[in-house]
Write a sequence for this structure.
């Protein structure tokens, strides 16, 4: 049984933004093994570390404050766990903070904010398009997976902000789903920026329990990574 459980905030950027979610899980598994941490494993023929990621990140996107929870079979100081993992982290994976959580607590996201830099020549009518989209009672998009269907993403749109240099997409996340940043970009007519090389950042990933009680993270060791 687990004797200790931790929640870690981390940044995924650089070349690691092209890493799939499954590859990210394997990366954390290698870090745990190389760090020599006594992690709790799943049961079955192919046991793996018991880890929970709050919300998977789209391939190619940068995550500025992502969340992973892991369980250990021994009690260790949070700073020890973080420093040993940080020593094994590859470039592009920056461990930011750690906190101990109760064994029965699981990271449940409730809000995500995405950001995309907008070229000056595309900013003209973007603010009005954001206003118009938020005024719509329904916003339907087509999804191909897990099966073809149409989804109304309007209930997930908290806010759209077209600032001086960037667009911010503020989304509600529920247990039944959320909207995707690329879907909103398509509705706003700027999805082509992704094909041109623009990179989406997930700037905020807010959890239910942290929204109720802020703070509690221990600072991570100072370390520099390629952006």
């Amino acid at each position: 049984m687990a004797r200790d459980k931790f929640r870690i905030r981390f940044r995924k950027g650089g070349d690691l933004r092209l890493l799939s979610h499954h590859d990210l899980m394997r990366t954390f598994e290698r870090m745990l093994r190389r760090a020599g941490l006594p992690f709790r494993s799943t049961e079955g023929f192919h046991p793996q570390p018991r880890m929970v990621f709050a919300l998977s990140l789209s391939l190619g996107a940068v995550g500025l404050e992502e969340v992973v929870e892991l369980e250990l079979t021994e009690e260790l100081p949070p700073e020890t766990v973080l420093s040993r993992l940080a020593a094994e982290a590859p470039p592009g994976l920056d461990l930011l903070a750690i906190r101990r959580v109760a064994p029965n607590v699981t990271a449940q996201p409730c809000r995500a904010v995405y950001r995309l830099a907008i070229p000056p020549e595309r900013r003209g009518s973007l603010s009005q398009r954001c206003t118009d989209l938020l005024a719509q009672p329904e916003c339907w998009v087509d999804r191909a997976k897990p099966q073809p269907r149409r989804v109304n993403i309007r209930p997930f749109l908290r806010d759209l902000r077209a600032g001086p240099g960037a667009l911010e997409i503020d989304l509600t996340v529920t247990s039944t789903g959320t909207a995707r940043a690329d879907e909103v970009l398509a509705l706003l007519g700027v999805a082509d920026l992704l094909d041109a090389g623009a990179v989406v950042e997930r700037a905020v990933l807010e959890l239910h329990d942290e929204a109720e009680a802020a703070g509690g993270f221990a600072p991570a060791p100072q370390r520099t990574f390629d952006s």
User: Anything to note?
Assistant: The first helix runs from residue 21 to 35. The CA atoms of residues 82 and 98 lie 7 Å apart.
